[in-house]
């Protein structure tokens, strides 16, 4: 038995909105252990809607619709479903009453078009909408086929899903076997290299292991099917441990952990503090670090030294070195890191200077050249050179630069 | 003739990622005037992928795939397409060469699994990927059917679409009647208030006007159907002008313009400079300003004064005022703005101090309380208080705070 998510609305075909409902429902189905292999988007068109219902009803047993339940003539979902299964639409008096009350609450009168929202296929149960006027339905038009409809407004759909659909699905026996996933995150290794290192694991059946890449990092998703989250974790834990052992320092965290949160955890554990000096990232490194609530325990702040005068004034970079080596150099990166560490009185100082592009590159200093400086306890200072090239573009080069800086600090904190 | 978007990847079925590729492609198809009635998401499974290809090839003439082109064994898109149409896969030597070069640039060696990415169905044209290793294809496996494949990584897909797919589709006669849109952007006004102000425009047929809200701002999309971008612009221009006149200062820019880019344009025009002092945004304001290439002309840098000691040391905030009024106060916001302006020697100084949450709030200073300070020429200094509440969450509260700061500077620059 498996489900299909069908999102109805011309606004998705025009690209006006992002289909976040499909993502929400996908996560929810995974948590309940309901297999789900297809998602379909179709416009507000009765003929094409009918075709989509026909295909879905032939390949899955649970159809979940969102959208097309509104009061306007182009809201067709319920009508199309009723037509396809040959059921008449009947007006539900409780729904009429509910809609009228909601309008009264807002000091408005119910318009005639809202009566349409109370038309339900004969035999279907109303799926109440506590926060809006469009109810959904739960309907078994034939044995082994269950249909849910939800409005397209995400907040309304979420509450209806949680309050009515989930209890119903659990009463049908779902939620006993769930799919539980862990996403292991890696920095400093390419997708293909990591996939080869862990190739023996990519054919496992439970848990499964699958790699994917994006924004400069690689992830391995480890997914287990089990009767409880605890049982799934038990299946995942030994595999996770082996994968982490194979990857060594290239593994940095799992799920919602970021390089910034991992560095924060390490600093908190050692009771140390950090400050940053940013040129080409312009504040992005500080932004990442402070995205974490409570980061003020170890992150004290820093200097955005975008203009060279700020590097001299606030960080004490030597103007002669700026002239001699240029702002994008190992020397200046190190002086920036020492400068911010000393002035703010933190344990560590982390700096970034580079050419994010698309302009500003030269033959000797091309776009994508980035230096990270790291100053630590005592006189410790090092720098790291990156040549990210031009292919990532300005925004991603800055993102990758900030993460590369954090990764260097992470490796340093782990290997002392 | 119409198109179907097919996104391949188990990560979408698990709800791990939002399907932003479908939205991008939907917008692009609308711009080219290519009708598009279906979107399908399917996992990395050869049997189900085959079924999806079969259904799509029977109902549309243009199939656009994203995802499943990577080097790992679960990347199956190209193979499934070739199998379905009975074409052998052949290794493309130019693609091999291109992948090897890209690895060399990054100082890495190409792994054997990357060779898989060079396997192309016989007869297909390579759709080059300038920023990644996975090329796509353009293929007519039979008359009246064209297939495109793109990698799932959005930034790679965008460039390939723009640089190769669009010119190809135009050469096939598409893009003659286009839908052309302008997105007008507003800050400081709610969606329903703006919609009421411009209600007379919401029923227009060509161009159409539709409101959207998100991330603290409201947009009006003005879309025209015409035979050329120029003709569409002619339809849009008078309506755009009227909408902007109605909105007054709440309108700030269109399309890709951001509050940061608009402020930058104003500063560049007046030959003035800006520095920032950030507490709760931790660098996010500087990050926004420097996202724009060339921002070094007017943005000199700033101080991330996350810890109070940094506010005193690097910005000269009075420690007694910090004690008396607290770090989140109008007084401290103003002193931060003056401090950074004076120390960096810029025309303007912009500061933010607030409680982004979820913790750190008190009865008198709740989560969401944010002060923006603005120091300008001479002794000019003002501050602005915001109460964003808790509903947006930490990340969005920070985003909205940084934009609110920019908006104040924008209004100041426009009204002197």
What is the topological layout?
2 copies of one chain form a homodimer.
Chain A: E1 3-8, H1 10-13, H2 20-32, E2 36-42, H3 46-59, E3 62-66, H4 77-84, E4 89-91, H5 93-105, E5 119-121, E6 125-127, E7 136-142, E8 145-150, H6 154-171, E9 178-186, H7 191-197, E10 208-214, E11 217-226, H8 229-247, E12 251-254, H9 259-270, E13 274-278, H10 284-290, E14 299-304, H11 308-315, H12 319-325, H13 330-344, E15 348-354, E16 369-375, E17 381-387, H14 393-414
Helix pairs in contact in A: 2-6, 3-4, 9-14
Overview of this protein structure:
- 2 copies of one chain form a homodimer.
- With about 425 residues, chain A is of the alpha/beta class.
- In chain A, the strands form 4 sheets. Chain A has a 6-stranded mixed sheet with strand order 2-1-3-8-7-6, with helices on both faces.
- Chain A has helices spanning about 10-15, 20-30, 45-60, 75-85, 95-105, 155-170, 190-195, 230-245, 260-270, 285-290, 310-315, 320-325, 330-345, 395-415; strands at about 5-10, 35-40, 60-65, 90, 120, 125, 135-140, 145-150, 180-185, 210-215, 215-225, 250-255, 275-280, 300-305, 350-355, 370-375, 380-385.
- Chain A folds into 3 domains: about 5-170, Molybdenum Cofactor Biosythetic Enzyme, Chain A (3-Layer(aba) Sandwich), CATH 3.40.980.10; about 180-255, Alpha-Beta Plaits (2-Layer Sandwich); about 260-415, Maf protein (Alpha-Beta Complex), CATH 3.90.950.
- Helices cover about 40% and strands about 25% of the residues of chain A.
- The longest helix of chain A is centred in the last third of the chain and has 22 residues, at about 395-415.
- In chain A, a hairpin with a 2-residue loop joins strand 7 (about 135-140) and strand 8 (about 145-150).
- The two termini of chain A are about 55 Å apart.
- Chains A and B meet through helix 2, strand 2, helix 3, strand 9 and helix 7 of A and helix 1, helix 2, strand 2, helix 3 and strand 13 of B.
- Strand 2 (about 35-40) of chain A pairs antiparallel with strand 2 of chain B.
């Amino acid at each position: 038995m498996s489900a299909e998510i069908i999102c109805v609305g011309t606004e998705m075909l025009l690209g006006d909105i992002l289909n976040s409902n499909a993502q929400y429902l996908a996560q929810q189905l995974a948590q309940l252990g309901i297999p789900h292999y297809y998602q379909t988007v179709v416009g507000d068109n009765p003929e094409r809607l009918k075709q989509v219902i026909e295909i879905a009803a032939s390949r899955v047993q649970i159809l979940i619709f969102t959208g097309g339940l509104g009061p306007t003539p182009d809201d067709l979902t319920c009508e199309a479903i009723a037509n396809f299964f040959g059921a008449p639409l009947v007006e539900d008096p409780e729904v009429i009453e509910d809609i009228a009350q909601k309008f009264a609450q807002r000091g408005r009168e119910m318009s005639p078009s809202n009566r349409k929202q109370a038309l339900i296929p004969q035999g279907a149960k109303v799926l109440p909408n506590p926060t809006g006027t469009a109810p959904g339905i739960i309907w078994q038009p034939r044995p082994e086929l269950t249909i849910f409809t939800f409005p397209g407004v995400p907040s309304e759909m979420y509450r209806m899903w949680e309050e009515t659909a989930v209890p119903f699905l659990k009463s049908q026996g779902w939620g006993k076997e769930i799919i539980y996933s862990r996403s292991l995150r890696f920095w400093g290794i390419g997708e293909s290299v990591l996939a080869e290192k862990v190739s023996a694991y990519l054919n496992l059946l439970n848990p499964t292991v699958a790699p994917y890449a994006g924004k400069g990092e690689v992830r391995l998703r480890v997914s287990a099917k089990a009767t409880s989250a605890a049982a799934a974790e038990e299946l995942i834990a030994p595999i996770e441990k082996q994968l982490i052992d194979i990857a060594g320092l290239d593994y940095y965290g799992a799920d919602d952990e970021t390089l910034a949160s991992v560095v924060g955890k390490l600093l908190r554990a050692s009771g140390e503090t950090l400050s940053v000096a940013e040129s080409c990232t312009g504040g992005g490194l500080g932004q990442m670090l402070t995205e974490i609530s409570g980061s003020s325990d170890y992150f004290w702040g820093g200097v955005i030294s975008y203009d060279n005068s700020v590097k001299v004034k606030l960080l004490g970079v030597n103007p002669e070195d700026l002239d001699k080596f240029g702002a994008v150099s190992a020397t200046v990166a190190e002086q920036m890191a020492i400068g911010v560490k000393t002035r703010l009185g933190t344990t560590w100082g982390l700096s970034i200077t580079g050419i994010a592009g698309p302009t500003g590159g030269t033959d000797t200093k091309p776009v994508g050249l980035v230096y990270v400086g790291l100053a630590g306890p005592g006189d410790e200072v090092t720098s790291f050179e990156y040549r990210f090239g031009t292919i990532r573009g300005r925004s991603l080069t800055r993102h990758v630069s900030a993460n590369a800086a954090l990764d260097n600090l992470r490796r340093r904190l782990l290997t002392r």
